[in-house]
Specification:
Elements (H helix, E strand, L loop, with lengths): L1 E6 L2 E4 L4 E9 L4 E9 L6 E7 L4 E3 L7 E6 L4 E6 L8 E9 L6 E4 L3 E6 L1
Parallel strand pairs: 2-11
Antiparallel strand pairs: 1-3, 3-8, 4-5, 4-9, 5-6, 7-8, 9-10, 9-11
Length: 119
Amino acid sequence: QVQVVESGGGLVQAGGSLRLSCTASGSIVSIDHMGWYRQTPGKQRELVATVASDDSTNYSDSVKGRFTISRANIKNTVYLQMNGLKPEDTAVYYCKTALGYGGPLYTYWGQGTQVIVSS
């Protein structure tokens, strides 16, 4: 069993900042990558940012230059620093943990944390 828990969401004014945290725990042997996705009502979940085991990162164009993803290996934790927030960043943010090494990946999701950016 693997548990993924997010925290750090909330309400912020446009231009403000928030930092999301996500920790994976349980039967973890090797993490391939972790990442953040977001979803608004009626839309598909979309990629925000990911960080791989070699610390390489990937960002959606909509957040490049404003958001930064980082991780602390020892604690299986990933952070998302969000600066310059815009109302269109309002969404439920989900953390994904992908486990595996040299074979199939097993994906686990957190329950989500709400981010609301007021104009």
